[in-house]
Amino acid sequence: MTRIVILGGGFAAIGVAQRLERTLRPGEAEVTLISRENFSLFTPMLPEVSSGALDTRHIVTPIRAQLRRTHFILADVTALDLNSREITYTHTLTGIAERLRYDQLVITTGASTSTFGLPGVAERVFALKTLEDAAILRNRFMWLLELADDAPEAERKKLLTLVVVGGGFTGVETAGEMVELFHSVGRFYPRVRPGDVRIVLIEGGATLLPGLPVRMGSYAEKFLRGRGVEVLTGDGVRSADDEGIELASGKRIETHTIVWSAGIQPRLLTGSESLPHAKNGAILAAADMSVPGFPGIWACGDCAGIPDGTGKYFPPTAQHAIREAPLLADNLVATMRGGQTRPFRYTSLGMMASLGARKAVAQLPGNRVLTGFLAWFLWRTYYLARLPGLDRKLRVAFDWTLELLFPRDISELRVYTRRAQSSAAADAGLLPRDENL
Ligand SMILES: Cc1cc2nc3c(=O)[nH]c(=O)nc-3n(C[C@H](O)[C@H](O)[C@H](O)COP(=O)(O)OP(=O)(O)OC[C@H]3O[C@@H](n4cnc5c(N)ncnc54)[C@H](O)[C@@H]3O)c2cc1C
């Protein structure tokens, strides 16, 4: 039996595994999927988790619930040995290291946050890439409000100065969601006045939503400014320290909270250095998503550079990963059966960004632009339809309904964070659970 191993648990990995389950004949191959979480994350709704509009668990779907015949291992893949055709993984819960042989390997390890080596930045900023990031950020907002309500005016203003770096769709949505959150819960913090909250959105390009039609960026900028967000375009971050950030223009902003959505980099494995790489570090794949010169190795999603036929690569979006995955699976099976592979071809459907207060911007096929309430309605219906699992769809729809009736929850939770642990262990001076493994 052919041993097919899929690395990752995101849009690309699940798409490949589901298609393989459908196309492989019984006994033809044994499929194993290894991911460091036992769920896949629906990232387009992550900003809403960070603002408390959606509950943390409602935007994740257990991997086991999405697959029927694939063997799942909850582990961190630590190394790849291209000569012996083996991968090494460390089980997430036990910490035990194992090796696994493959005949066909699918790499879909996605991307991680990049802070471009800017001094002081990586250790101070809040990323918004994982579920844990969103939970930590939401908790941070509650924490800031609790402190601010009991602080002298000058300190209160500094505590409530929040900077979002990166005016792409994640940054824009996060800034919009932050405004929604502070509006919704303001009544619980009587000493915090609306003017105390300062949200600054910084974008290095000339307009927000770079790469998308200019009309979308200008609508988003006008709308967010109207909601009180300070939008700084054409400026970037030079460095960060404990008291704030320095911008390329020389401007300084005093803040304790910087949300970073300014860059990603492909997440690569030790041992994959000899694979071909694109300029941005992604694994360079052929148009059929095989890795040239390495038979049996495949890559797609954010960690792969797949040529789009115009000298560029397909962009790292869920929209593309979802479409790349089934074709990769078909090509892999075709190769196993001695058949022909097909190149990946796809024209983007467009992009959407929600701005809060029932407004959004959307790029539609043909480069048409939709703004305002209709775009927001489209955003919600499209992403709700795309969220895997009927139970998750219902939970999210229920969260959205509750949000119309009640203010957002202000409970300051310390669970879900990496350092969360039993208070008995903390009181006994033990290390956080993760470090005890
Ligand atoms: C906040 C946010 C909003 C977004 N909104 C949109 C949107 O509206 N529309 C859109 O099209 N795209 C959006 N994206 C981009 C989209 O999330 C990515 O393009 C998509 O997730 C890529 O899918 P993937 O499967 O390649 O990688 P991922 O979804 O990142 O999955 C990678 C998987 O690999 C696992 N993994 C990584 N390394 C290892 C390892 N060493 N061992 C074991 N497991 C490992 C990870 O845990 C993860 O499960 C958004 C991204 C973010 C962060």
Keywords for this entry:
437 residues, alpha/beta, FAD/NAD(P)-binding domain, 2 domains, 7-stranded mixed sheet, 5-stranded parallel sheet, 12 helices, globular, binds flavin-adenine dinucleotide
Report the major sheet.
7 strands, mixed
CATH uppermost class of the largest domain: Alpha Beta
User: Which molecules are bound in this entry?
Assistant: flavin-adenine dinucleotide
Q: Fraction of residues in helices? A: 25-40%
Instruction: Tell me the number of strands.
Output: 24
Oligomer: single chain
User: Which band does the percent of strand residues land in?
Assistant: 15-25%
CATH architecture of the largest domain: 3-Layer(bba) Sandwich
Number of domains: 2
Description:
A hairpin with a 2-residue loop joins strand 22 and strand 23. The protein has 2 domains: 184 residues, FAD/NAD(P)-binding domain; 193 residues, FAD/NAD(P)-binding domain (3-Layer(bba) Sandwich), CATH 3.50.50. With 437 residues, it is α/β, with parallel strands linked by helices. It is globular, with a radius of gyration of 23 Å. The protein has a 7-stranded mixed β-sheet with strand order 7-6-5-2-1-8-20. A 5-stranded parallel β-sheet has the order 10-17-11-12-13. It is built from 12 helices and 24 strands. The structure holds flavin-adenine dinucleotide (FAD).
